[in-house]
């Protein structure tokens, strides 16, 4: 899988071949900052997707760098990809996990002002675990909104079955 760099990232990395390794950069601080950001993006995305050596070389080859610079970037990637993935995993948000769900359907058949009113509501009690602590969230909705939510979740599950999503999820882990 090739890494698809945006035009902005390509521009940020464009100054790298002109850098003299022995002397001063002779470029503005903004150019250096953009170059560092471009390298950071290149290495981060490549590590996140666990791109192979060949795919990384092909992704960098498109940028038009010299053979020496391509080899240097490949070595930088190979030396640091595990550490980058470790840092990315540490930065990932620690989200609560599902424990259990209780639900109840309430129907209001009438009120003082309206005798023939039917107003259904669904109440959920969601139990979550987060860092060994149990949290409870109470949610309430009407059946139409619940049906829409179920349809959206089913659509998301179907999307996860596509080859593209499977590949992305496999590369994230």
Strand content: 15-25%
Q: Major beta sheet, specifics? A: 3 strands, antiparallel
Number of helices: 6
Give the count of structural domains.
3
Summarize the topology:
Blueprint: H1 7-13, H2 29-48, H3 53-61, H4 67-91, E1 97-108, E2 119-130, E3 133-141, H5 143-160, H6 163-172
Antiparallel strand pairs: 1-2, 2-3
Helix pairs in contact: 1-2, 2-4, 3-4
Domain COMM: 97-164
Protein name: COMM domain-containing protein 2 isoform X2
Organism: Octodon degus (Degu)
Question: Tags for this entry?
Answer:
173 residues; alpha+beta; 3 domains; 51% helix; 19% strand
Q: What does this protein structure show overall?
A:
The protein is an alpha+beta fold and 173 residues long. The protein folds into three domains: 7-19 and 27-91, no CATH class; 94-141, no CATH class; 144-172. Helix content is 51%, strand content 19%. The chain has helices at residues 7-13, 29-48, 53-61, 67-91, 143-160, 163-172; strands spanning 97-108, 119-130, 133-141. The protein has a three-stranded antiparallel beta sheet. Strand 2 (119-130) and strand 3 form a beta hairpin. Helix 1 (7-13) packs across helix 2 (29-48), helix 2 (29-48) crosses helix 4 (67-91) and helix 3 (53-61) crosses helix 4 (67-91). It starts with 6 loop residues before the first helix and ends with a helix. The model has no long low-confidence stretch (mean pLDDT 88).
Quick structural overview:
With 173 residues, the chain is an alpha+beta fold. The protein has helices spanning 7-13, 29-48, 53-61, 67-91, 143-160, 163-172; strands at 97-108, 119-130, 133-141.
């Amino acid at each position: 899988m090739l890494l698809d760099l945006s035009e902005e990232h390509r521009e940020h990395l464009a100054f790298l071949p002109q850098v003299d390794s022995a002397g001063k950069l002779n470029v503005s601080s903004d150019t250096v900052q953009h170059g560092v950001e471009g390298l950071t993006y290149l290495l981060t995305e490549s590590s996140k997707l666990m791109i192979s050596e060949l795919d990384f070389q092909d992704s960098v080859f498109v940028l038009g760098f010299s053979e020496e610079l391509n080899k240097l970037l490949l070595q930088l990637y190979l030396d640091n990809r595990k550490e980058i993935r470790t840092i990315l995993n540490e930065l990932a948000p620690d989200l609560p996990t599902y424990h259990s769900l209780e639900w109840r359907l309430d129907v209001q058949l009438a009120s003082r002002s309206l005798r023939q009113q039917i107003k259904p509501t669904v109440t959920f009690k969601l139990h979550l675990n987060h860092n060994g602590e149990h949290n409870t969230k109470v949610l309430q909705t009407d059946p139409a909104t619940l049906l829409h939510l179920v349809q959206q979740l089913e659509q998301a599950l179907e999307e996860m079955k596509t080859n593209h999503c499977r590949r992305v999820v496999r590369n994230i882990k």
